[in-house]
Amino acid sequence: MPIRTHRGRAAVYRRLWGWPLRSPKHLLAAVVLFAGLATGVGLLLPEPQLDSPQQRGSQQASSGGPDEAAVAAERRAAKAPPTISVPQGGPAPAAPSPEGLTTAEAWGRAWVTHPPGTDSQQWLQRLRPHTTAEFITVMSSVDPANVPSTEVTGPAAPLESTSGSMDVRLPTNAGELEILVIRTGQGWKVADYTKVG
C-alpha cells in the first residue's frame, strides 16, 4: 500500500534513521556496514594522478625533453627545504665614539640638574637635545624631585660599544648610571638608562 500522507512518510523515515539507535547490536551492525561500504568504494575508485615536478621531469626525459642534468636539478630543487639565514652573533665591537661619550656626559649633567622648584617640563627641555624622541616620552613620567643625584662626579666610561650604540657608565654623587647611547640621524642620543648603584 503506498504512503499517501506526509505523516506516514515521516514515520517511515523516522523508522529507517532510528534503526541503528534501537540497540547496541543495531549500532554495531550499522557501523560495520558503513565501514565496509566506505572501504569498497575506496577500492573501486582509481588512484589519483599527481602532477608533481618529479613526474613531469621523468615524462620529459622519456619523451626526449630536457637533458638529465636539468631534470636532476629540478628534482633537487623540489625536495630541498627553504633555507633561512640566521645571524650568528651580534654586531662587531668598535672603538667608543668620543661624540657618544660627550652626549652621555651632557645628558647626565642635565639629568642631575634639578634645583628645587624645577617642574618636569623645564627638566625635560634640558634633556631633550640629548635624548631620542621615544625615550623622552618615557622620561616624561619621571618626577625630577625623585632623582636623588645632584652632580656628576666623574667622566663617562664606555662598557661596550659597536658602530651604532654604546653602553656607558657615568658616576654621580648618588650612585652610577648605565646609559645606552645610540647613533641616530641627528647624531648620538640617549635611548635608555639604568641606576646601577
From TrEMBL:
**Segment Disordered: which positions?**
48-101, 146-168
- Annotated Low complexity bias: 52-72, 87-100
Q: What is this protein called?
A: Uncharacterized protein
